[in-house]
Amino acid sequence: MPNLLDGIKPTLLMGPGPSCVYDEVYAALAKPTIGHLDPYFIKIMDAVKDDLKAVLGTSNRLTMPMSGTGSSGMETCFVNLVEPGDKVLILTNGVFGKRMEDVAGRLGAEVDSIQFEWGTPVLPQEVEKKLKGQKYSIVAVVHAETSTGVRNPVQEVGDLVKAAGALYLVDCVTSLGGIPVRMDEWGADALYSGTQKCLSCPPGLAPLSFSDRAVEKLKARKSKVPNWYLDLTMIMNYWEGNTRAYHHTAPINMIYGLYAALRHLLEEGPDNAHARHRAAHEQLVSGLEKLGASMYVDKSCRLPMLNAVTIPQGLDDAGIRGRLLKEFDIEIGNGLGPLAGKIWRIGLMGHTARPENVDRLLKALTACMKQ
Fold first, then answer.
1. Residues of the chain whose pLDDT is less than 50?
2. Residues 6+ apart with CB under 8 A from 38
3. What's the fold here for domain 4-18+269-370?
């Protein structure tokens, strides 16, 4: 019987995620598995918490990786902070804002939203108007909207949310490690991310942090958290204190991988990592312009790590993406929703954001577009 794993070949991952994985992370994943309550593993857990605080820009005690991909981070925030009837405002300008609306609605929240055109940022003045007319329990926004390549003004929105007295929830799945994330400075009360983007670790964990205000709301719930697996009132007893209480078996080797990825980011220096992402983005934009391709998002709010590229007229979207993968072992992403068939999403995340990778993509695109 053939072993299908033998057929896996290295792919240059330049889509919306996952990204290329560091060798140190692969090596960490291969370390011997030990028990999830082993004292040595608890040391690693504590180190991961400290490193997460450093990269998230927070001093929050409740900071940990959730078992599951970035979407589990989203679910965790909403399922722990929302009770039926809570008024929740979602600032939506892409797929992941829409997903927030869906998740909050399933929990019985009274969901309101402000819809912004895909490819444009959230406008703080519109948020301010909305907050003056209604009182909300939670206001949520995506920092880096993966479906469009837009960076939202989370600091300005955070100032408005703080003045309104609501909890502020921020999605940093794509931004963490690629652009500055400053949770405490933004006044964010709940924040989540994912390992598979700019941290260059395989998908499987969702870094998360709750402020003291968020923890107070959690502890003051009138009803149980409706999802057992994501219930932070129990999980925090596994991640905190001198005596660790079993909740579920942690993905031990994935936490090894996150530990290695965080150490890599901190050793490089977050500022240096952000500059590397910016340089790769500028190299890509310059090269695409020479090929006659333009960026979909205005320069003022573009993400460096997720590039939305307008597909030049007359080109076969799926055909070119297929050729890149089949002939050049390069993956890029397609557009979603109203942007399907209109844009390519080119990821320059973490280990992928290097000049040699940008050169390789541009050469491959040149060959595909000429033909």
1. none
2. none
3. Aspartate Aminotransferase, domain 1 (3.90.1150)
